[in-house]
Amino acid sequence: MSKRAIFLDRDGVLNVEKTFVLSPADMELYPQVGRAVKKINESPFLAIVVTNQSAVARNYITEQELERIHQELRRQLDTAGAYLDGIYYCPHRELLDETPQNRDYIMDCECRKPKPGMLLQAARDFDLDLKASYLVGDSVRDIEAGKMAGCTTIGLRTGHSLKGLQDPPGQIFDTLEEAVNFIMSNRE
Ligand SMILES: [Zn+2]
Description:
5 helices, alpha/beta, Rossmann fold
């Protein structure tokens, strides 16, 4: 039987939105996030992060440094008894005029949201039923990626607060915990 996931954007959903998170010290979870992810862990849903990290293409951080930031994310969740089933990130950026940049990562990839590549990859890796899965995000790109993958989408007023949104998500909440509570009360 296919599994279901709640896809989570990272910056502005799990941790406080900063222009770039460049070190583990920049990783600051919103207060209710540990509880919210734990509720997902205690449900049939997988908790899977899908995050654009163009800081790598911009040469602000390496993939190794990004891994350390994600270790810190996992460590903070662990203190709340919560965990992530997967973290997918896009390190790319299409056509960047500015410097610095790392040319290895400058490409028109399939993973950078609003493209649904990371969700599709996770669906292959975990045998997910995307139509029975959810995406929670704070930006227009998140919502578009979730819709393209066939997921039910939920917007948050944290982080980018869905700025510029034209095609709204199914629901909008103030916090991840409220979004998770909604999913739990609506699932069959
Ligand atoms: Zn990419």
